[in-house]
Amino acid sequence: MQIAIDIIVFALGLIAGIGIMIIKIRMTSGSPQTKQELNNCQQENAQLKQNWQDNLAAFRSVATNLHEMSQHIDNQIEDAEQLLKDDKQTPAFPFFSKEATHILANANRKPRDKSNLDNQPLDYSGSASGVFKGSINTPINEDRT
Q: Region annotation Disordered: residue ranges (predicted)?
């Protein structure tokens, strides 16, 4: 009888072990729908990762361009400041004298008002004067004999 009980307990253990293995296999393998959803999630995750990498590369490029533009603008500002500072220095061979340069630098630069000329200048007076005095009908190359 002992042998029969041992065989029955062995058979029950074997059946229980096989049943647990079958349940475990069904639970871990999942349905085809679950596998498809897992595959879709993995693809979406890969696509999101690629999008993030593309965006980071674009942002890095924009940041580099902004940095280069900022340096270019800083250089231009420094050049302009240098030109303003150098403007006060007199050149080695000035065109005007020191006094004339000083007067021109400190002169008020107001635009001149255009005046209406009602009268002709004296050089172009209405009556004949000086060299132009004489008759109008007299030819220039006239023989005086």
A: 105-145
pTM beyond 0.85: the answer is no
- 29 occurs within a structural domain: no
Domain assignment present for residue 59? The answer is yes
SS (H, E, C) the chain: CHHHHHHHHHHHHHHHHHHHHHHHHHHHHCCHHHHHHHHHHHHHHHHHHHHHHHHHHHHHHHHHHHHHHHHHHHHHHHHHHHHHHHHCCCCCCCCCCHHHHHHHHHCCCCCCCCCCCCCCCHHHCCCCCHHHCCCCCCCCCCCCC
**So what's the pLDDT on residue 32?**
75
Regions of the chain with pLDDT less than 70: 29-30, 86-92, 108-145
